[in-house]
Amino acid sequence: MLDKKITIQELQEKKKRGEKITMLTAYDYPIASMVDEAGIDMILVGDSLGMVVLGYKDTLSVSMDDMIRHSQAVKRATKRALIVGDMPYKSFDTPKDAVKNAKRFIEEAGCDAVKLENQEESSFDSAAAIIKAGIAVEGHLGLTPQSVEKLGGFKVQGRTPEAAQKIIDNAKRLEKMGCFSIVLECVPAELGKMITKSLSIPTIGIGAGADCDGQVLVIHDIIGLFERFTPKFVKKYAILAPVIKDAVRQYIKEVKEGKFPSADHIFK
Ligand code: KIV
Questions:
Q1: How many Å is the Cα radius of gyration of the chain?
Q2: Which residues participate in 3-methyl-2-oxobutanoate binding (predicted)?
Q3: CA spacing 20 to 30 A to 265: which of 33, 44, 108, 122?
Q4: Strand, helix or coil for residue 87
Q5: pLDDT by residue (tens digit) across 52-73?
Q6: Looking at residues 138-148, what average pLDDT do you find?
């Protein structure tokens, strides 16, 4: 049924049945309404907000207040999808801050769960503390954009046996501490498959191959609204930027030529 709220338990059952899980980002009311109505399982209010909506060069400048405001807009629009709020840079450096900020996503914004990037050792303690506080956590391994400097750029992770083993170990660690799912970003497809097979919780891949339990992409990438660059793992299902520019050019032309507003658009 398309209007029944998706639960974490249902996502886990989908994994057991081998049914793929779908996830997209959204950051505002109109896009979240469309994504939800189209039938997506999970909406991620990603800190990619910083790049595709706020115009920063990376995700590091996104604040908790930015995330809460945009998560609130997504919540107003969403009837069915499970909403995951992405914890921004510096918001989970200590377990205490992590719990305080995760609670904001749930209590102020109405999210159903939070996601945090697991690169620093402290992020594992923070994830454990949030789970202990009763909040559902999705982990994030592989390419973690908040650590882009440390990783030497937006590069595929887990290419050596040692690096791959570390990601596998960390995935098991996150599962053991009670994460309900893990995002795997930019890892070789074989590694995505191996991790997916070794876990009982769903993996959601982004550039991690077709064998993950689900897939996530940034909505602005798949509808062609973000023109600065397109990662290899993105497939564009629509190219809207030229459509919008054409509409604006036509409007400018008609206003200049006195064709708009016409009789249909004025009050007598
Ligand atoms: O912020 C984001 O959009 C993300 C996805 C790329 C997984 O974290």
A1: 20
A2: 47-48, 86, 115
A3: 33
A4: coil
A5: 999 999 999 999 999 999 999 9
A6: 96
- Residue 121 assigned ligand-binding role: no
Tokens of 197: 């097979």
User: How does pLDDT run across 146-178, given as a tens digit for each residue?
Assistant: 999 899 889 999 999 999 999 999 999 999 999
**How many angstroms separate the CA atoms of 16 and 34, rounded?**
28
Q: Is 117 annotated as a binding residue?
A: yes
Of 185, 190, 227, 254, the catalytic one is 185
pLDDT of residue 95: 98
CATH class of residue range 8-237? alpha beta
For residue 49, the SS3 value is helix
Q: What is the pLDDT of residues 206-249, one digit of tens each?
A: 999 999 999 999 999 999 999 999 999 999 999 999 999 999 99
**Closest-CA residue to 114 (of 133, 80, 122, 157):** 133
Residue nearest atom 8 in ligand 1 by C-alpha distance? 46
Residues whose CB is less than 8 angstroms from the CB of residue 84 and which lie 6 or more positions away in sequence, other chains included: 23, 42, 43, 44, 45, 111, 112, 113, 114, 115, 138
185 counts as catalytic: yes
User: Does the pTM of the predicted model rise above 0.70?
Assistant: yes
Secondary structure, 3-state, 167-227 = HHHHHHHHHHHCCCEEEEECCCHHHHHHHHHHCCCCEEEECCCCCCCEEEECHHHHCCCCC
Task: Give the integer Cα–Cα distance in Å for 205 and 192.
Answer: 7
- Answer yes or no: is the C-beta of 25 below 6 A from any ligand 1 atom: yes
